[in-house]
Amino acid sequence: MMATIGSGLVAEGISLGFGGLQVLSDVSLTLKPGVITGLIGPNGAGKTSLFNCLTGLYHGQRGHSSFAGTPLDGMGPAQRAACGITRSFQNLAMCPELSLLENVLVGLTLKRRSGWFSAFVPTPAQQAEREDTERRAMAALSELGIASAAHHKPSDLPPGTLRLAEIARAIASEPRAILLDEPAAGLNAVETRDLMRALKRLMRPDLVLLVVEHDMDLIMELCEHIYVLNFGRMIANGTPAEIRAHPDVIRVYLGDDADD
Amino acid sequence: MAVSELAHGTKAGVSARNGNVDAARLSIFALVAALALLPLLAGGFLLYSLSLCFANALAVLSVSMLVRYGGEVSIGHSFFVALGAYAVAIVEHRLGLSIAVSLPLAVLLGAIAGFVFAFPSRRLSGIYLAVATMALALALPEILIGFEKFTGGFEGLYIAQDLIPGISKALQRYYVALVLLVVVCLALSHFRKSAQGLALLMAQAQPRAAEAMGITRSWARVSIFTLSAALASLAGAMTGFASSTVSPNSFTFFSGVFLLVGSVVSLNRLSLPAALVGGAFITLVPTYLAKAGDWVPILYGVALIVVTLAANAGDLRRFLPRRRGR
Ligand SMILES: Nc1ncnc2c1ncn2[C@@H]1O[C@H](COP(=O)(O)OP(=O)(O)OP(=O)(O)O)[C@@H](O)[C@H]1O
Ligand SMILES: [Mg+2]
Questions:
Q1: Does the CB of A78 have a partner CB in chain B at under 8 Å?
Q2: Domain A1-84+175-260: which CATH class?
Q3: Cα-based angle B238, B244, B245 (whole degrees, multiple of 5)
Q4: Would the CB atoms of A109 and B193 count as touching at under 8 Å?
Q5: Is the CB of A43 under 6 A from ligand 1?
Q6: In this structure, what CATH number is given to the domain that contains residue B267?
Q7: Between these two residues, A163 and A113, which has the higher pLDDT value?
Q8: Averaged pLDDT for residues A151-158
Q9: Is residue B236 part of a domain?
């Protein structure tokens, strides 16, 4: 079950606890490039915590992770971002003071070449860079169908649009790995369909894409490989058909139906 | 679909906003034109007070910049202001050079001092950082008096050199300070749109998300503090030039507190009108307050407590029983 280190984003034996609370216990997963991987599990299963471990916001007490053969252990979130790993946030991480376009532009920070001088004094080079990054950010917004909202403030926009913007920001920098935390939460049926199409269009052979979702239909249709997390343990992984038939998964989801 | 709903609102909304922006630009332009023509009508004391007001406005901007882009409060920015002012005075006394040389030097020194202070304290924030900056403000008078040989001790130093020979002192002070203030405001409005400006705003609003985009907290803290200190030092150089004198009296512990109050009075805005309001406040109120005699330190103290506590309301929640996680 353990894949060879060197391909894609790999986590092995991650354990994470807060005080007495064990959030993740010996969790392993392999995210292969070119495959859309899903991660499901009931509320509080530890999905976001696993995201945080993969992106360096949390550091597990045990376990290792690597990306394309490079060990990630000990790297902070900014360093991992520099490796080409981006993510979206379940609880919409928008800066209220910035327009939607500017919020997406921030996702391109690591591409910045212009120095401090041109931050205060307009220079041709900085102007050109600005146009280029704006074009990329607009392209990402268009890809998700929300270009018309570019110049609005987040507070003027519905949560569905902000959710999509969150994803636009993650894809704008042309990353090598994208981790999306509940990208379809708060979207209506049409928006969800559009999102799914956009994600499929996005897929390239060298891209790692992980999607956390509560929407089973979406996950089953979108993903080729699915991991199931429950109480911090990985209880199953396999193709959608395998997951649908897995007895532990059925038990968890039937027993937990009242939720969400 | 939410997006098509938006598309309707978009054009009207954006063009209305453009209209507001144009109106705002026009009124600022009118303000600058009026200030530029003022010396034709007014003279002497008013011009002198206004040049001081412009210099103080720059100092207020340096504090507001730290608040807006760093989310931090500094009580000790008078330290960096003094650095700039004394740089101008000492360069003139020792090397006989005018602000043409000492002004850029002051900015550089301010940036270096800001960096040297910010780097070790980059993990401090909120009330802890405010207290650390307080140490700067407290040390300042001792330093100024201690290094008497350079600083002129209690008496301070005079600044006599002109920037542009052949133009009256009053007009020089006025126009140099005005031009610098306008240029700084323009630079700050460009900064708001720059990649670094956006990154700093994001780091402040969503520190963890910003980290995941490659914007580290220590980068944000060190950069904004360095920039803000450089601007404070520039403001100090202008204060020295505009008042033709530097002395420890102008840089007591309370002048740092006062800068902070001035920034609050201008609502921490970085626009020219806001800066002028803050600058006018700092220039005028102390002279009126001077009549309050013994009450002055108490008033300052109360202002300090109120401003710092208000600015750190978020941090204070930390002391409530329920502790947040990492
Ligand atoms: N910083 C933290 N400090 C303490 N406990 C935490 C922290 N972060 C997460 N937890 C706990 O870890 C458990 C898993 O949380 P997590 O957010 O990872 O779940 P999730 O699977 O993303 O749930 P949801 O579907 O609701 O988003 C929860 O019990 C949560 O309270
Ligand atoms: Mg979650």
A1: yes
A2: alpha beta
A3: 100
A4: no
A5: yes
A6: 1.10.3470
A7: A163
A8: 94
A9: yes
Question: Is there a domain that residue B308 lies in?
Answer: no
pLDDT at B16: 59
The verdict on pTM exceeding 0.90 is: no
Residue of A nearest to B187 (CA): A120
Mean model confidence pLDDT for chain A: 89
Give the domain range for residue B262. 3-14+23-288
To 10 degrees, what angle do helices B2-37 and B272-289 make? 50
The answer to whether residue A259 scores a pLDDT higher than 60 is no
Question: B272-289 and B169-193 helices cross at what angle (nearest 10)?
Answer: 130
Q: Nearest bound ligand to CA A20?
A: 1
A106 CB near a chain B CB, below 8 Å?
A: yes
For residue A40, CA distances in Å to A166, A181, B79, B182 come to: 20, 10, 55, 56
Domain with CATH 3.40.50.300 in chain A: 1-84+175-260
**Crossing angle of the two packed helices B99-118 and B78-95, in degrees rounded to 10:** 140
Give the per-residue pLDDT at B107: 97
For ligand 1, atom 3, the nearest C-alpha belongs to B325
Nearest to B157 by CA among B85, B236, B254: B85
Residue B72 lies in a domain: yes
Asked whether residue B59 is assigned to any structural domain, the reply reads yes
Q: What is the predicted ipTM? A: 0.90
Q: How many domains does chain B have?
A: 1
Q: What is the mean pLDDT of residues B271-279?
A: 93
**CA closest to A151 among chain B residues:** B14
**pLDDT at site A6:** 55
Q: Distances from the Cα of B310 to the Cαs of B10, B127, B195, B224, B307, in angstroms?
A: 36, 10, 30, 21, 5
CA dihedral A174, A178, A180, A184 (to 10 degrees): 50
